[in-house]
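Worked Example 4.2. Consider the chain below.
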Amino acid sequence: MKAWNKIKRFFSASSPFFTYLLIQLSAIIFGVIPLLIYKLSVNAFDMESFVGVKEAEIALLCDLLFNFICVAAIFFQMRFYSYKFSDISPTKQNGKVCIWTVFFSIGAFFVISFINNRFIGLTGLAPEESALGFSSLATLLWLLLNISYAFIEELIFRGLLYKNYEKDFSVIFSAVVISLEAAVNNVPAFGIMLYVFIYSLILFYIRRRFGDIRLCIIMHIIMNLFETLSFFIGEGYYNTVMNIGAAAGLVIAAASMYLMIKCADAPEKAPKEA
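Applying the procedure from the previous section yields the following structure tokens:
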């Protein structure tokens, strides 16, 4: 009975994650699938033009619009759990920590990407496709989408889920489960699941160590921005850029984290969020 109650509490605490998955699934059903059915009906045997520039723009725009639904769902769930922003981000770190977070994020991106690329090479997974063929509008929509994802996913994973899990579960369990949920959320981009899992663990540490979810949002935006930019690197230069970046990034990330910890206000001394 005790184990069953624990399972029920886990699924109840995980409701923000399941809600997010449901909204994303709805975006696919009501946006992408009808578009693909239409293209199949008019170009049944012309697979090369099955998904063109216009279709990519429509799919990205649809995804962006559904992100507004995610924001509404987050606010609804915050009211449901009676959470204020101060509950999911109890402290407000100083500007120095925010600046060093930017440098840490850049270094961490190259290091984690290097690890992920080696993993892809060992497993034989297909690498992510280049975005060099994207139109200007699709590129802009992609950037806006990645920025919106940073806010939404941090409020869900390091916000609502973190707060829900800390009531009934250990720190290690919460860190692993939240990172796995974040990785599962990226199943369509299967090649970056390890990448997401690793940096989700780092984001969990930052949220727990500094108590300021804004740092997680900053890191997520930087990581998404550099991930987007990496798609525009030519294939002939990609490995060189990533290898050099990983070597320098390891030093930058280590030094930046040291400075973040050194400059950070202790939770009891940092100003509380209003």
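Residues 12 and 237 are 47 Å apart (CA to CA). The chain has a mean pLDDT of 84. Compare this with Example 4.1 before moving on.
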